[in-house]
Design goal:
The chain is about 45% helix and about 15% strand. The strands form 4 sheets. It has a 6-stranded mixed beta sheet with strand order 5-6-7-3-8-9, with helices on both faces. The protein has 24 helices and 14 strands. It binds adenosine-5'-triphosphate.
């Protein structure tokens, strides 16, 4: 039995939780000093109007977003701290959106999440079979995209139930589900909560009466709980027939802070209070004559309450000096569990950092790579497109550039006085002219075609990978899939690495295809000479240098993460149009079209630091001059590529971390 069950009977505890979005004038307070207690093994129904902050609260509970005040404890610890499996396999999360891969089958979807949770193949198969029959789903080979809306929601529920988590969080699971199935889902929830598994369930719903089946309900408004208790207790306390009436009654009674409460809110003037100083406060209930007093222990950023009075809402905002408005309206929502010791604390900066620096896990990488490859397999037109574009590029390039000139119009400027030259030229016609010598090749090594072909190969694959991976990220984020993967314990670094690995495979194929066309279709000299060279070193070098070229694609992921943090396709379009600028950065400055030696000195220096400059030169030297890994230019290309990868990964990781809210 986990340790927290002995020390604390609550699976989830929120104390004075505050959370806002935005800053400055656009700051929006979403959670305003919310307190919540979810007993272990209970079904907790979270009710509230649209936009009152339910989803935000759930995100705080699963550790997907940081709180700005107060603390959250989930299954005994602060969510998101290192070593805690929340987010991870201890929590099953069904978001509001269906959040499924539409091109996957039901079986593939559940296998993907099972792998992320470290389940064996047998366990996945067994649970899949059970969930399919329990949720009356069609056979597992059916594509998600071909299921009805209700069936898709049931698959989403199955993915949350798959690993039999200790905490199940369901954000409106019964929306769009028929009444029969809704009843069945509730039966199952009651079953798993009461069985030996003792799963704790938090469920949000707009169907208030459905929540009467829960062990405990929390009625939420304006970012805080108006009341929290057993449904029957709430109804008897307020002498009302149903939960809906209780909710309406509480909403009428409640007025949001700063409305017109001056005479109701007693205020006190405090002397300057330093950390851990205690202050005795007298208070009076607004709706009765009863009075009492309470001792508050004040801290710099926190305050703790002794007695029945809860933490003053304005304490943290205004600091410990001056007037404090006591939140009378919420001061009597008794939270219970007085003796509970909650081993949680606000997420500290050092903990955040530890979480960010987490090493990628092979299990997650494997599951993500299989997912990426399955996505590719299911999207043949896109895959063909990925291979066709570089082919078209190399063919057009070889057809149009570097060939022997023909049909060139020639004119002669003749300045002799007697116009004898003009007379002579007048006698010339197409038959008079005859070629007197074969054109001489090989004067310049490498030729212009050779010069550009290497750069083209490096950059053609680069652009396509950027666009397609970005698109996949934006869509996954938009459909809530990224959120779901994060809650399953996947890190941003793992998602990024899985895309690097799968794109590398595709890019290797693209490069071989382009080389084949350049060699067989157009006899590009440099490719021929590289292939004819028999020394082992040359072959190794040629292949080896492909890797820096491939790895430079990592720059993709900086853009990918920046863009995927925005939720609309607008930014994808914006990104694609900014390719104009990227053209200069990737074709002109790295010396793909024209040698960098012809640039001013300062520009040359900048060029050396760009990700494609060294790999392009290295490929050119290996193919044209037979250089190998021993040559400085070749190994420098590796170093520069690796440095770019590290820089991008760190920058992308930091950006994602701070944009995750
Ligand atoms: N990422 C975000 N950035 C800015 N504001 C946000 C963000 N997420 C939510 N909000 C805002 O916070 C408030 C609460 O949103 P939340 O999704 O938590 O509400 P909810 O109670 O779950 O609503 P519903 O029942 O309609 O799903 C809303 O006003 C919403 O616009």
């Amino acid at each position: 039995m986990p340790q927290y069950r002995d020390s604390c009977p609550v699976a989830v505890q929120c104390c004075d939780v505050r959370k806002h979005y935005g800053s400055g004038r656009s700051k929006q307070d979403v959670l305003c000093g919310l307190d919540m207690n979810v007993p272990y093994g209970a079904i907790y129904g979270l009710l509230g109007a649209s936009g009152c902050g339910k989803t935000t609260l759930l995100k705080c509970i699963v550790g997907r977003t940081n709180v700005h005040g107060g603390y959250v404890s989930t299954l005994g610890r602060t969510p998101g701290t290192s070593g805690h499996l929340v987010p991870g396999r201890m929590v099953g999360y069904m978001p509001q959106e269906t959040a499924l891969f539409v091109r996957f089958t039901i079986g593939e979807t559940l296998t993907f999440f099972g792998r992320l949770h470290g389940m064996s193949s047998d366990a996945i198969r067994e649970r899949t079979d059970f969930l399919l029959s329990f949720l009356t789903l069609p056979e597992k080979s059916r594509l998600i995209g071909q299921l009805s809306g209700g069936q898709q929601r049931r698959v989403s529920l199955a993915a949350a139930l798959l690993q039999e988590p200790e905490l199940l969080i369901l954000d409106e699971p019964t929306v769009g589900v028929d009444p029969v199935l809704r009843e069945k889902i509730w039966e199952h929830l009651l079953d798993i909560a009461k069985s030996s598994l003792k799963t704790t369930i938090i469920i949000t719903t707009h169907y208030i009466e459905e929540a009467a089946l829960a062990d405990r309900v929390g009625l939420m408004r304006g970012g805080r709980l108006l009341a929290e208790d057993k449904p029957s207790t709430l109804m008897s306390t307020y002498k009302l027939q149903n939960l809906e009436a209780v909710f309406l009654h509480l909403c009428h009674r409640d007025r949001l802070p700063n409305e017109d409460d001056e005479e109701l809110l007693p205020s006190i003037s405090l002397p300057s209070a330093s950390d851990q100083e205690s202050v005795k406060v007298q208070y009076k209930r607004p709706d009765s004559d009863s009075t009492g007093d309470s001792v508050l222990l004040l801290g710099g950023n926190k305050s703790t309450t002794y007695g029945s009075l809860k933490t003053p809402r304005d304490l943290t905002r205004g600091g410990c000096e001056g007037r404090i408005h006591l939140p009378i309206k919420t001061s009597y929502t008794y939270s219970g569990y007085e003796d509970c010791v909650v081993p949680g604390s606000p997420l500290s900066k050092s903990r955040r950092f530890r979480k960010m620096a987490m090493l990628p896990r092979a299990r997650n990488l494997y599951a993500l790579c299989v997912k990426n490859l399955t996505s590719m397999k299911r999207n043949i037109p896109i895959l063909l497109f990925e291979f066709m574009v570089p082919v078209i590029q190399i063919v057009l390039f070889c057809v149009c550039i570097g060939r022997e000139p023909r049909q060139i119009p020639v004119s002669i400027v003749n300045q002799d006085v007697d116009d004898l030259g003009g007379l002579f030229i007048g006698f010339l016609n197409n038959e008079t002219m005859n070629k007197v010598a074969e054109p001489v090749y090989g004067t310049f090594e490498p030729s212009f075609t050779d010069f550009m072909a290497s750069g083209l190969i490096v950059s053609a694959t680069f652009f396509l990978a950027t666009g397609l991976t970005t698109l996949s990220f934006v869509l996954e984020r938009k459909e809530g899939l990224l959120e779901r993967m994060y809650v399953a314990g996947v890190s941003a670094l793992e998602i990024m690495m899985s895309h690097v690995l799968t794109q590398l495979t595709v890019m290797l194929g693209q490069i071989l295809l382009m080389l084949g066309i350049a060699l067989l279709g157009f006899q590009v000299g440099m490719v021929i000479s590289a292939c004819c060279r028999s020394e082992m070193a040359s072959i190794q070098g040629t292949l080896g240098t492909m890797y820096p070229a491939l790895l430079t694609s990592d720059i993709v992921f900086l853009f990918v993460y920046l863009i995927s943090s925005f939720k609309t396709l607008f930014f994808f379009v914006y990104f694609m149009s900014s390719i104009q600028i990227l053209f200069f950065l990737s074709y002109i400055i790295p010396g793909i079209i024209w040698p960098i030696e012809a640039m001013p000195n300062w520009m040359m220096k900048i060029s050396y630091f760009l990700p494609m400059t060294y790999p392009t030169y290295a490929v050119r030297s290996i193919m044209g001059r037979g250089w190998s890994i021993q040559d400085s230019l070749v190994w420098m290309s590796y170093l520069i590529s690796i440095a770019w990868i590290v820089i991008h990964s760190v920058v992308a990781g930091v950006l994602i971390h701070f944009q995750s809210d």
